[in-house]
Design a protein that fits this description.
The structure holds two protein chains of two kinds. The longest helix of chain A is centred in the last third of the chain and has 24 residues. Chain A is an alpha/beta fold. Chain A is globular, with a radius of gyration of 21 Å. Among the domains of chain A are: 126 residues, 3-Layer(aba) Sandwich (Rossmann fold), CATH 3.40.50; 51 residues, Orthogonal Bundle (Arc Repressor Mutant, subunit A). Chain A is 52% helix and 15% strand. In chain B, 47% of the residues are buried. In chain B, strands 10-7-6-14-25 form a five-stranded parallel sheet, with helices on one face. Chain B has a five-stranded parallel sheet with strand order 16-23-17-18-19. In chain B, a hairpin with a 2-residue loop joins strand 28 and strand 29. Chain B folds into four domains: 130 residues, Rossmann fold; 183 residues, FAD/NAD(P)-binding domain (3-Layer(bba) Sandwich), CATH 3.50.50.60; 142 residues, FAD/NAD(P)-binding domain, CATH 3.50.50.60; 63 residues, 2-Layer Sandwich (Alpha-Beta Plaits), CATH 3.30.70.20. The chains are: A alpha/beta, B alpha/beta. Chains A and B meet through helix 1, strand 2, helix 2, helix 3 and helix 7 of A and helix 4, helix 5, helix 13 and helix 14 of B.
């Protein structure tokens, strides 16, 4: 019988300077003990944390990421954490489309006086990620496949369409538009999920074409989608000037990536 | 470009760190990291001996980056930054690594893993410091002139307080005379001094002060610029007045809700407390039985707040009615009498003793005003009473001026959901707006009595005089910077920024976002959401953050 070494998750925490970082300091001053798996990166406001940075952390092999800010309504910069909340919600959805558990990303609020709460959050999150296991082993994907998917997810989060939607969420859901209409939260979430799905699919196609000219069939195989779906995306990518047909092989056109 | 030379100082903090982590080992580890040319452990890096070592090491080893691994930047970053500055190093080329509060103190049972974590933290710090860039604080001159908006008791007090500090003040009042709400009040609680006398005294003082210019029948039309340098346009009748101001104080007060279509309000037999004040002032009150009803139009679904001054106003007016006419009967129908503090509680006790009747009702069973009598279910007696009256007085809440939202927009400051101006922080910055250089006091912010309004006016004057006394404001250098070539002018950043520090302007290259350096607080919210990734957050750039995203496996290998 062999002894399996217990898995120690590797966790990064992005903490805002004014509340959560101060809460973490208080945990120290009060000697509240927690597992050493977490390493903290200080930012001035949790809203500084660009969703692409979260994805990059997973690409680099981190098992879990925490983003902690001031409690809603208490942000030192007034509204920063509302943006954090929406951006991280989107990041979680993107993680889901990669095939990873969104639970690997924790978004929560810790005030400067909540040292004990901070320690508890870290303890619980470390245990949660420990149960989820190493990032590389959560899916059946080969390391390179997982990396490609995470890269596609990161690029999707850098896309204008998604960033624009995230940035407008509050306005769209809370205020009426010029026609006096309001978008409900469910409608918005639905729209967001669709947009993520679309952008993710498009970017996976583009990434698959990085080196070769490929036919729709070949791309479909590469990105695990139906040729029909890929074709639909190719038409819109061609319209956006991101791919072009460079020749015909047999009956299938061959595409090449044009935009970078 | 100069070679990057990093010095790392690892602190024992007595036994706080040294008792749990292998501090000399950490210093040795640091020396192996890229760009690190000097590393040392100190008993206390923050002691004079430690700071001298940093200064010497910078000089002797030509260090151009410094990392201190010790406690928390929240307490010690200013100290180490200024030490770097003393040694001729730009203070923004310094990086803090927290191995005490977030390492040695919280992993006391597992010192081995804690030391490994500390190594990783130092490595992250070194990776970032290499990418840091020198930043310079810049100064912006402050025009020593204040604009005070609103000439009520709050605005007058604030104006005087500023002028007495020798600052020029422009006081703008939209009515044709100063005094505001106090012009319609009779006597003030709890001292019963006449409101008009208070106004008169202040107005005379204002007139005598050559630093003050009063602009009546005037309104703020446009405000441009930022702290220290506001360009103000005032509309006075048909003509515009333009001037510059360094700071702005909002003291526009509030108004009292007119209870149209409520409780039989007719302005004749059913009136408001404010209208009662007028009758008392003119000595034309002719009523033997007065029924006052509290919380009219407040503490309900539409207006959840307590207007705070109505209970004491009702008490005061009840007392004054009985003083003028000892035979008069006064009933006060209330939900809760709010008379906090010893003076006001005392005032309430005395009012009860004089024979004023207090009857408690619940919001579920509201009083009904009928012709000649009020029907009320007495919560404490548990039965319905019928009170004949000569006069019904409704205590309605203070509400925000209808045009306060307009003014808020012109000043680019927020209002709350009831239209009152919203301060930056309820405890830390109670008279400041989040936008630097703009302040708020009195009822514009929230219902307040005269005493409170005056205190707030002094507070706002004091806060506003800081930038004017100093003469300049320092601008935070770690701010957002826009790459105009990448910017599409979509305006999302303008929408995101709570400080109005970034706005879209027409440029030669089309619509582009521009950062107002003096207003930017450096939170980074705009950059992290920019659809074009055209905004860089200085000192917290993507590269500087990503440099710290190092998996532990890379540290141990």
């Amino acid at each position: 019988m062999t002894f399996k070494e217990s898995f120690e998750p590797d966790i990064l925490g992005f903490l805002c300077n004014w509340c959560s970082y101060a809460g973490a300091d208080l945990a120290g001053v009060s000697r509240f003990q927690y597992p050493p798996n977490i390493r903290i990166i200080r930012v001035m406001c949790s809203a500084r944390v660009d969703p692409t940075i979260i994805l990059e952390a997973f690409i680099r092999g981190l098992d879990g990421v925490m983003v902690l800010g001031c409690h809603l309504g208490d942000c030192h910069y007034m509204t920063g954490n509302y943006y954090t909340e929406r951006r991280m919600k989107t990041s979680k959805n993107v993680l889901k489309s990669v095939g990873l558990s969104p639970e690997r990303l924790l978004v929560d609020w810790v005030s400067a006086s909540e040292g004990e709460r901070f320690a508890t959050l870290v303890k619980d999150f470390t245990e949660r990620v420990r149960k989820l296991g190493s990032l590389g082993k959560e899916t059946d994907l080969e390391p390179q496949q997982l990396r490609t998917r995470l890269t596609a997810a990161k690029e999707a989060l850098a896309q204008e369409r998604i960033r624009w939607l995230v940035g407008r969420e509050r306005e769209l859901v809370e205020d009426k538009n010029v026609f006096g209409e309001k978008v409900s939260q469910e409608e918005f979430d639905q729209l967001m999920l669709q947009t993520i799905k679309k952008e993710f699919a498009k970017i996976r196609i583009l990434l698959s074409m990085e080196e070769d000219t490929l036919s729709v069939k070949e791309i479909a195989q590469e990105v695990e989608a139906s040729p029909r779906e890929v074709l639909r995306n190719m038409i819109s990518l061609e319209r956006d000037g991101l791919v072009s047909v460079v020749g015909i092989e047999g009956n299938s056109p061959k595409y090449r990536r044009t935009g970078v | 470009m100069n070679e990057v030379r990093v010095g790392v100082f690892v602190c024992h903090c007595g036994t706080n760190i040294g008792g749990f982590l292998n501090v000399p080992g950490l210093a040795k580890y640091a020396l192996r990291l890229p760009h690190v040319v000097f590393a040392k452990d100190n008993q206390y890096t923050c002691s004079e001996a430690g700071l001298t070592e940093i200064r010497n090491a910078i000089a002797e080893n030509k260090l151009n980056r410094v990392v201190v691994a010790s406690c928390t930047p929240r307490t010690h970053e200013p100290l180490f930054r200024s030490t770097c500055k003393e040694a001729g190093l730009n203070p923004y080329l310094f990086q803090f690594v927290n191995i005490r509060d977030q390492c040695s103190w919280v992993h006391m049972q597992d010192t081995e893993r804690a030391t490994e974590k500390a190594k990783a933290l130092i490595r992250m710090g070194v990776a970032r410091v290499v990418l840091l860039e020198p930043l310079e604080e810049t100064q912006v001159e402050v025009n020593p002139c204040a604009l005070v908006i609103g000439g009520g008791i709050t605005g007058m007090t604030c104006t005087l307080s500023l002028a007495n500090r020798d600052f020029e003040v422009k006081l703008v009042e939209k009515e044709d005379r100063l005094g505001g709400t106090l012009n319609t009040l009779y006597k003030l609680y709890p001292t019963h001094e006449e409101a008009s006398k208070l106004v008169q005294a202040k107005a005379e003082e204002l007139k005598k002060n050559p630093k003050i210019e009063v602009l009546t029948s005037s309104e703020v039309e446009e405000v441009k610029g930022f702290v220290g340098n506001y360009d103000i346009t005032i509309r006075q009748g048909e003509k515009d007045r333009l001037f510059k101001a360094g700071v702005i104080i909002v003291a526009t007060g509030a108004e009292t809700l007119k209870p149209v279509d409520m409780y039989g309000y007719d302005g004749e037999h059913v009136i408001t407390q404010l209208e009662l004040e007028g009758r008392l002032k003119e000595g034309r009150l002719n009523a033997n039985t007065v029924v006052m009803i509290q919380c009219i139009g407040s503490r309900n679904e539409k207006r959840a707040y307590c207007s705070k001054v109505c209970c004491l106003t009702a008490l005061k007016n009840a007392v004054l009615i009985r003083e003028a006419n000892p035979d008069a009967q006064v009933f006060v129908l209330y939900r809760d009498m709010v008379t906090q503090g010893t003076i006001y509680e005392d005032y309430y006790g005395k009012a009860r003793e004089t024979g004023i009747m207090f009857i408690k009702y619940s919001p579920e069973r509201q009083p009904v005003v009928e012709d000649g009598s009020v029907r009320i279910y007495d919560e404490l007696l548990g039965e319905e009473l019928i009170l004949p009256y000569d006069l019904v007085v409704l205590s309605t809440p203070m509400v925000a001026h209808l045009d306060s939202a307009d003014l808020a927009q012109r000043l680019k400051v927020p209002v709350d959901k009831y239209g009152f101006f919203l301060e930056a922080h309820v405890k830390l910055r109670p008279v400041d707006f989040a936008t630097d250089g703009i302040f708020v006091c009195g009822c514009a912010h929230w219902p307040a009595n005269v005493g409170e309004s005056i205190s707030q006016a002094y507070g706002a004057a004091s806060r506003a005089s800081i930038p004017m006394s100093v003469g300049h404001v320092k601008t935070e250098p770690s701010i957002a910077v826009v790459d105009e070539d990448e910017c599409s002018g979509c305006g999302l950043c303008e929408l995101t920024c709570p400080f109005k520090a970034i706005r879209i302007e027409e440029t030669e290259k089309g619509r582009k976002a521009k950062v107002i350096a003096a207003s930017c607080k450096g939170c980074g919210a705009c950059g992290a959401g920019c659809p074009q990734k055209a905004i860089t957050m200085r000192h917290f750039t993507d590269e500087q953050l990503l440099a710290q995203v190092i998996p532990l496996t890379e540290v141990t290998s």
